[in-house]
Write a structure and sequence with these properties.
This protein has 16 helices and eleven strands. With 368 residues, it is of the alpha/beta class. The relative contact order is 0.09. About 4% of the residues have low confidence. The strands form two sheets. It has a nine-stranded mixed beta sheet, sandwiched between helices. The longest helix has 14 residues. Strand 10 and strand 11 form a beta hairpin. Helices cover 42% and strands 12% of the residues. The protein folds into three domains: 79 residues; 182 residues, 3-Layer(aba) Sandwich (Rossmann fold), CATH 3.40.50; 49 residues, Winged helix-like DNA-binding domain superfamily/Winged helix DNA-binding domain (Arc Repressor Mutant, subunit A), CATH 1.10.10.10.
């Protein structure tokens, strides 16, 4: 067995051993040369490291040629040798550097598609699986603009906001990264199979720390959130309720010393209360793409002083204050500092241009 093959097998074994998680392995490797050395330690040395009994037993079972564990390792290696599939362990040169910085990085990443995109500047975009009428469209538009500005949009490919973010990135012609809570042979949700294929075809990547044939497990979805935030410079929560898993991602981003952004929502929208909570706790408020770019300050593919898109910087000053929740002319005057007559004139112009509509409760943008 070559050194590379032996190293790959050792990392796979460590990722599958009972009771030995990423944080524990990382601590052990601070005193040991490699995972191969760890797996070859004798019983006395294993016990001297203070390992739990079940961990020691797992290492011994591996050394004795446990058939079930070896079959799982062999299946993962066979998957990785198929075209387009990749296996990145913690010390692999292509392992994403930002993810390696977190306290409990996955020991092994299974990647389908382009592994290089995992090291590009990324923004995590997450939100509810049950968005309001404008939430998914907003996520799509912002993801498209971020992609046009050179950021890779990363999300969890769930229904709702996540899926809309991936679609927006694809609409801009750029790559996007989807982190799964299942193995990469078990697309979940099933209806996103075509989306998964499109992500791979457009130069993006599907990522999981689970073996390829692993099915959905409830506890794994919160754990995969640390990968979404860990890959990214910051996390933007588009729309989320108070019990949304997106708030877990935001908390993890803070623990990883990454930026957290949130879009404000109506006090009457239960799916926006999680975002409003994050804003009260100090998250960056986001109304435009520029609000995120100015905080991240990363070198992007397009110069930031280039002609901005409509979504990033609206043409008419009133559009800065107008969203998809109705606002009265008086309220717009207060927010913008413009006289009411000037606001009414501007609203009329925008209405004639088909950009704004008047409703019984006020003025809102028109969805393109």
């Amino acid at each position: 067995m070559s050194t590379l093959s032996g190293t790959r097998q050792a990392w796979l074994a460590l990722s599958m051993l009972d009771g030995l998680g990423p944080k524990g392995v990382r601590q052990l490797l601070e005193t040991l040369a490699s995972p191969v050395d760890l797996l070859n330690l004798d019983l006395t040395r294993l016990r001297s490291l203070g390992l739990q009994g079940r961990v020691v037993a797992s290492v011994l079972r591996y050394r004795q040629g446990d058939a079930e564990l070896q079959a799982r390792i062999d299946a993962s290696i066979a998957w990785a040798e198929q075209p387009g599939n990749h296996l990145l362990w913690l010390e692999h040169p292509a392992y994403p550097p930002l993810l390696r910085e977190i306290t409990d990085p996955p020991l092994v990443l299974y990647v389908r598609g382009n592994p290089e995109v995992l090291s590009d500047p990324q923004l995590a975009m997450v939100g509810t699986r049950h968005p309001g009428p404008h939430g998914a469209a907003t996520a799509h538009d912002f993801a498209r603009c971020f992609t046009e500005q050179g950021l890779v949009v990363t999300s969890g490919m769930a229904l709702g906001i996540d899926g809309a973010c991936h679609q927006g990135a694809l609409a801009a012609g750029g790559p996007t990264v989807a982190v799964w809570g299942t193995g990469l042979q078990r697309c979940y949700p099933h209806r996103h199979r075509q989306l998964a294929e499109a992500i791979v075809e457009r130069g993006g990547a599907l990522v999981s720390e689970m073996p390829p044939d692993a099915g959905p497990q409830p506890g794994q979805f919160p754990r995969r959130n640390r990968i979404i935030s860990g890959l990214s410079l910051g996390t933007l929560v588009v729309e989320a309720s108070l019990n949304s898993g997106s708030l877990i991602t935001a908390r993890l981003a803070l623990e990883q010393n990454r930026e957290v952004f949130a879009m404000p929502g109506s006090i009457h929208n239960t799916q926006a209360r999680g975002c409003n909570k994050l804003l009260r706790e100090g998250a960056h408020l986001v109304e435009t793409v520029a609000d995120v770019l100015s905080v991240l300050r990363v070198p992007l593919r397009q110069a930031l002083d280039a002609q901005p898109t409509e979504t990033a910087e609206p043409r008419h000053p009133l559009l800065r204050w107008l969203g998809y929740d109705p606002l009265s002319a008086d309220r717009l005057s207060m927010q913008s500092g413009m006289p009411v007559q000037q606001v009414l004139q501007g609203l009329l112009e925008l209405e004639l241009d088909g950009l704004v509509q008047q409703t019984a409760h006020g003025y809102t943008r028109v969805r393109a």
